[in-house]
Specification:
By secondary structure, this protein is an alpha/beta fold. It has a single domain (6-237), classed as Spore Coat Polysaccharide Biosynthesis Protein SpsA, Chain A. The chain contains eight helices and nine strands. The chain has helices spanning 19-29, 46-56, 71-83, 104-111, 134-151, 167-172, 182-195, 219-237, and strands at 6-12, 33-39, 60-64, 89-92, 116-120, 129-130, 163-166, 200-204, 207-208. Strands 3-2-1-4-7-5-8 form a seven-stranded mixed β-sheet, sandwiched between helices. The chain has a two-stranded parallel ribbon with strand order 6-9. Helix 1 links the parallel strand 1 and strand 2. It is globular. The termini are far apart.
């Protein structure tokens, strides 16, 4: 069986310090992997740096967006870019080295028999997180439990952002109808996929807090997730998801 074309979609906003560290690790993880950096007009020059990296390595691509449009919008733009170019597997991955690139081959192996593969921080009733403050950990764990209870989504790490999708999943979930960002985007995408009949497979990863740069998590992102799961539940109940 030939290897699928794989696209790692990596949103960036002010990740100039982290990008040259994470990109080589992702490229080296598997020969079939390519990267699409989706930059939201980072004022620190991340987009220009991404272009420099792309000139040196043909497996790196760059998509520029005008202004800070949010994580969900960046992923949707990246998915649509890749769907138009016939990639087969799509990864979501942070640019801050919190997601381990060496787990990409394992997730690709799982994707041979599962349409959705989740790199999970909380699978098997374990918490695999390094260097997070306790408040951040509580918010994340509670957020996943909260989303799972309300939406009935059978996923331990509902808010996690290290995921692998078959192209047919992304074609089925109606990307153009998604308006969520941040945690809520991750919940909604997983929920839509599950409701379309795509069963998720979770495998354990170790999540490591960023060493450089600033986290993009904010009160607004958390509050969006709190109310958005109720909206998703109601839309699901009335067949409007």
């Amino acid at each position: 069986m030939s290897e699928p074309r794989v696209l790692v979609v990596m949103p960036t906003y002010n990740e100039r310090e982290n990008l040259p560290r994470v990109v080589p690790l992702v490229v080296e993880s598997h020969p079939a992997v390519e990267i699409l950096v989706v930059d939201d007009a980072s004022p620190d020059g991340t987009g220009a740096l991404a272009e420099d990296l792309a000139r040196e390595e043909p497996r790196i691509h760059v998509l520029h967006r005008e202004g800070k449009g949010g994580l969900g919008g960046a992923y949707i733009a990246g998915f649509q870019w890749g769907l138009a170019r016939d990639y087969h597997l799509f990864f979501e991955m942070d640019a801050d080295l919190s997601h381990p690139p060496d787990r990409i081959p394992d997730m690709m192996d799982e994707a041979r028999s599962h349409p959705v593969v989740i790199g999970s921080r909380y699978v098997d009733r374990r918490v695999n997180v390094v260097n997070w403050p306790i408040t951040r950990l509580i918010i994340s764990v509670f957020g996943s439990v909260y989303a799972r209870v309300i939406t009935r989504l059978p996923v331990m790490d509902a808010t996690g952002g290290f995921n692998c999708w078959h192209r047919e999943v992304l074609e089925a979930v109606k990307l153009e109808r998604i308006r969520s960002n941040g945690y809520a985007f991750q919940i909604e995408l997983k929920l839509r996929a599950w409701r379309q009949g795509f069963q998720p497979r979770e495998i354990p990863i170790v999540f490591t807090e960023r060493e450089t740069g600033e986290s993009k998590m904010s009160k607004r992102i958390v509050l969006e997730a709190v109310w958005k799961v109720w909206e998703l539940r109601l839309r699901d109940l009335f067949g409007k998801l």
